[in-house]
Specification:
- 51% of the residues lie in helices and 3% in strands.
- The strands form two sheets. A four-stranded mixed β-sheet has the order 4-3-5-6, sandwiched between helices.
- Helix 9 packs antiparallel against helix 14.
- The longest helix is centred in the N-terminal third of the chain and has 31 residues.
Length: 680
């Protein structure tokens, strides 16, 4: 625990005990609460460790990077299959270390550690936030208890996806925002600063402490009272640790202001963790500006620090891949609106755990606290037992506590708007985490103790009785992905690539048989898994073999890195990502690719067409692929990446991102080729 926690009680003159623990009883309790919550996440996450097919999508891109082929899914085609940019590169960096031979296992370990770190940082940040106005007293875990009992929390502590990094980023961002507030000091909302050598008018730090005088804004000195000062005021007359350090000498940059530039940089990383976390970055950066209210020059520096890396990567993305967002965002139509499906997805997370019970208790507590403060003349509340601070400080505290709540509500709104996800709870967890951050811990009062006990009872029932449904009864598929994969792979903890590739599957068998025979062929999964015929590849296709499969991660793991894994759902297929949705029964699976497109793209004219694929559509697809926008789309991802190609990709990325074509090759031919005659 930091020195900002309760001031250590004076020790007896008889000396310390040989095995005595440092700090007060409240300090020890608070340290135990934070540690216990982090340990709970670690233990339950480890017991539920697993990975799914989507994690294998990340690891194939990582293996391509390590092989020197760049951040691609297939050699020869620049397609961004990873939604979490920072997660992909973090795994690549870790996998380059000696002794790391399976990026998937590394993803499990890193995901779990980052999840635990996110929770611990969030708890410590909330503790520090409370300490701004209440320097002593025991704290009770409350809001965090709504997350710990959820199966979804345990499951997505690992999974191999970027959710662990998301928790780590959110916890760190909250900690940094609280730290920025604490730099203002306990008695003022806008510090006196000399950022960039300029004094900021109207920003007043607590005055420099003068030896022999009480610390301004702090407790009265012990000499001004009768009798000795209590332990919590043992350091009256000195600046509380971590609060309002003396103002810097005029003309020198304020080191705290420089630190806040680094804070702005870290807060701006949200879009690289996940594109939708740009909402969180934006809200937290606005909160930072409202807390400090710097001059324009400083604000621009912070904005530049926050936007620098995301903008630089966006330029790289547009020039390298030719579009403005990762392909999964196009495949899932993240800019679309599907309110009913999104609402159903939210309820699929809330209802199985009866989450509305603890959320209602928190709401009643918040309303009761507000009424209590009004009746008491706005002098006391759950955060304070001392007279209320000046209006500027109250405003700063309101900005601090409101930022994660607003960010969480916006995140939940976005998830509902786009129609949710097919994995139970995964997209709701970050929003719930954010909303609960200000109440992860509460100062011990009778009302808070009653609330903690009530939430604890609910949590015990949640752990013992309630589990997510394996499947959803509605039109939209939402299922317990962890249980489904554990059952289908026949392993309690499928955390390695071999756990996925060694499971007998028809596609895996067909690929290995084709490779063993040395055939230059395409293994094509027919609709409804009607078969896996092998069709000769066109001579211009340099890959030794190819496979078209809906389980993209498994296909990428089974096929060699120089093989071509054709995605039938658009997550790593530029053509499929730009088609119009044709179904909506599963989020992210709305764009099944007509097999005619695959045959037209990878086989030579006159090649045999498997049973179940319409030859007319194959001919139409061949024609459409050589017309206008589709021909340019293929060139943006497959033409050699020269400086001219990079510039063309960059300047055309906006229109290319907006491009949509009919999924049916016959309709697409009419749309992009007009009345031209198809290629024979």
């Amino acid at each position: 625990m930091s020195r900002s926690d309760e001031i250590t009680a004076p020790q007896s003159a008889r000396g310390t005990r040989a095995f005595g623990l440092p700090g007060t009883l409240a300090q020890r309790w608070n340290a135990l609460a934070v540690t216990a919550c982090g340990a709970t996440v670690l233990v339950l996450g480890y017991q539920h460790r697993w990975t799914n097919d989507d994690a294998l999508i990340y690891t194939r891109a990582v293996r391509q990077i390590l092989a020197g082929n760049g951040p691609v899914y297939n050699v020869g085609e620049r397609a961004e299959s990873s939604t979490g940019t920072l997660w992909q590169w973090l795994l690549a960096a870790g996998s380059a270390l000696p002794g790391v031979d399976d990026p998937l296992r590394l993803a499990v370990v890193l995901g779990l550690l980052l999840t635990v770190a996110g929770f611990v940082l969030a708890l410590d940040a909330t503790r520090r936030m409370i300490r701004v106005a209440r320097p002593s007293g025991a704290l009770l875990p409350v809001g965090v208890l709504l997350l710990l009992p959820l199966c979804a929390t345990w499951d997505y502590a690992t999974s191999g996806l970027e959710t662990g990094l998301t928790f780590g980023y959110l916890g760190a961002a909250w900690w940094l925002l609280v730290h920025a507030r604490r730099c203002l000091g306990p008695g003022a909302a806008r510090p006196h600063s000399t950022l960039a050598g300029r004094e900021l008018p109207g920003l007043a730090l607590p005055r420099r402490a003068v030896p022999g005088r009480p610390y301004p804004g702090g407790a009265h000195s012990a000499q001004s009272r009768s009798g000795p000062a209590p332990a919590s005021e043992a350091h009256a007359g000195q600046p509380p640790a971590g609060y309002g350090a003396p103002a810097p000498v005029s003309g020198r940059p304020d080191p705290r202001g420089q630190g806040l530039t680094r804070t702005a940089f870290a807060l701006g990383l949200g879009p690289l963790v996940r594109p939708d976390l740009a909402l969180v970055s934006g809200v937290f950066l606005v909160a930072l500006l409202l807390l400090w209210r710097p001059p324009l020059r400083t604000a621009l520096r912070w904005a530049g620090a926050a936007a620098g890396l995301p903008v630089a990567y966006e330029i790289f993305r547009a020039g390298y891949y030719g579009v403005l967002v990762p392909l999964p965002a196009l495949a899932k139509e993240a800019s679309g609106t599907q309110w009913q499906f999104g609402w159903d997805y939210l309820l699929n997370t809330v209802d199985p755990y009866r989450l509305w019970v603890p959320l209602a208790l928190l709401a009643v507590f918040a309303v009761g606290t507000g009424v209590h403060r009004m009746l008491r003349g706005n002098r006391t509340g759950p955060w304070h037992e001392a007279p209320q601070e000046p209006g500027q400080q109250r405003a700063a505290d309101a900005v601090l506590r409101g930022a994660p709540v607003l960010a969480g509500l916006l995140s939940a709104f976005f998830v509902v708007k786009i129609g949710g996800d097919f994995m139970h709870g995964r997209m709701v967890l970050p929003a719930l985490f954010l909303v609960l951050l200000p109440v992860f811990l509460l100062p011990r009062t009778r009302a808070a103790a009653a609330l903690a006990v009530s939430v604890g009872v609910w949590g015990a029932a949640c752990i013992a009785l309630w589990r997510p449904p394996l499947d959803s009864p509605g039109e939209r598929i939402v299922y317990d992905s962890h249980t489904v994969y554990v059952n289908s792979l026949g392993q309690r903890h499928p955390v390695t690539q071999s756990a996925h590739t060694e499971r007998p599957r028809p596609f895996t068998h067909a690929v290995r048989t084709t490779a063993h025979a040395g055939l230059h062929g395409l293994v094509l999964r027919l609709p409804r898994e009607a078969g896996y015929p092998v069709v000769p590849l066109a001579p211009h296709v340099e890959a030794p073999l190819a496979g078209a499969e809906a389980r993209l991660g498994n296909a990428g793991a089974v096929l060699p890195l120089d093989g071509w894994a054709v995605d039938l759902l658009g997550l790593a297929n530029p053509l499929g990502a730009h088609t119009l949705p044709t179904q909506n029964h599963k989020a992210g699976h709305e764009k099944p690719l007509d097999r005619a497109w695959v045959l037209a793209d990878l086989t030579a004219p006159g090649a045999p067409v498997p049973y179940g694929v319409d030859p007319r559509r194959v001919a139409a697809a061949r024609h459409a692929l050589n017309c206008g926008p589709l021909s340019e789309l293929r060139a943006s991802t497959r033409a050699p990446l020269t400086a001219a190609r990079f510039w063309d990709n960059l300047t055309g990325s906006w229109e290319r991102t907006r491009l949509r074509i009919p999924a049916d090759p016959l309709d697409a031919e009419r749309a992009v080729c007009g009345a031209g005659k198809p290629e024979k």
